């Protein structure tokens, strides 16, 4: 009880210190929780849960993400479940849509509100892995007494955001630990795996959203999915959040169709897409033994289109020597 009281006093003191909020993301989140959301760090009432009907509606809205994420949640749980961790997937509002947790930990997780239908937004729970990840749209670790509410300080949470095919935030992936001996070093290892899984969900969701497109992958942020979707005429149909940022495109929403070459040709832009495109063309030509028509078929483009691309990329018609690339 004394520890919880000390936590409440510490949160209030730091949250009310303007210099602390200016220099620390954690302190800034505590300040939002206290001032903007009007929360009490000593509040004992449990986590708010929406109704089953409302949860069903949210799951329906997030059906595409859930379908793609399900096998990845299973795989992630196989990695972390035996160490007292649970895996949670939320929507963009911070409401838990799906959970993986061991039977022996189920009672604890339910008591903590780590369950389907629970609202873990910052507005509801203050600083926490899910809510702060969503508010700041970045991967986070909230370890034990970094939580805003004193009643949440027994858990550690590792989270990464998931972005949709139009660059919009669509959810968060969370691993929460019920173990009192969970170390911060172990949390960082889990966080890297969470981020990788979230990125793969985002990639697969993006690809599924453009079923007839060809995809170009660029060098970019290791924690982000940097892809363009282009049609048979090399017109850009869509871009992931990371690609939008890399090419200066609008951050969210449908893109105005534009030739991919307009992006590739920017002298001040990244060269990762050009490298990726050249590598893809060279691989196709190599597999086709230099047959341009066959290589074009493999790439899903017309023969004339491939010739134009080869000319721009300075690739001859003979089978490329990949050892020199």
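Sequence proposed for the structure above (325 residues):
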């Amino acid at each position: 009880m004394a520890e919880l009281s000390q936590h409440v006093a510490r949160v209030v003191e730091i949250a009310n210190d303007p210099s602390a909020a200016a220099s620390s993301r954690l302190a800034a989140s505590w300040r939002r929780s206290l001032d903007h959301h009007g929360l009490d760090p000593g509040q004992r009432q449990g986590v708010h849960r929406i109704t089953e009907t409302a949860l069903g509606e949210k799951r329906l809205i997030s059906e595409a993400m859930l379908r793609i994420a399900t096998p990845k949640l299973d795989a992630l749980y196989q990695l972390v479940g035996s160490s007292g961790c649970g895996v949670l997937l939320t929507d963009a509002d911070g409401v838990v849509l799906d959970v993986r947790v061991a039977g022996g930990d189920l009672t604890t997780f339910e008591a903590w509100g780590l369950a389907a239908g629970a609202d873990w937004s910052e507005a509801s729970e203050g600083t926490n892995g899910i809510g702060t990840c969503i508010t700041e749209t970045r991967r986070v670790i909230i370890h034990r007494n970094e939580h805003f509410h004193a009643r949440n300080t027994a858990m550690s949470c590792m989270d990464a955001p998931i972005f949709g095919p139009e660059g919009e935030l669509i959810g968060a992936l969370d691993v929460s630990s019920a173990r009192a001996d969970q170390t911060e070093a172990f949390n960082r290892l889990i966080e890297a795996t969470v981020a990788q899984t979230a990125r793969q969900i985002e990639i697969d969701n993006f690809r599924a959203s453009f079923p007839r497109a060809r995809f170009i992958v660029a060098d970019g942020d290791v924690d982000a999915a940097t892809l363009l979707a282009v049609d048979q005429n090399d017109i850009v149909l869509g871009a992931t959040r990371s690609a939008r940022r890399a090419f200066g495109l609008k951050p969210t929403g449908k893109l105005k169709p534009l030739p991919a070459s307009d992006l590739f040709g920017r002298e001040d832009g990244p060269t990762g897409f050009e490298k990726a495109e050249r590598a893809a063309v060279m691989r196709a030509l190599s597999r086709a033994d230099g047959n341009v028509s066959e290589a074009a078929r493999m790439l899903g483009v017309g023969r004339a289109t491939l010739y134009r691309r080869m000319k721009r990329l300075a690739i001859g018609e003979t089978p490329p020597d990949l050892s020199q690339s």
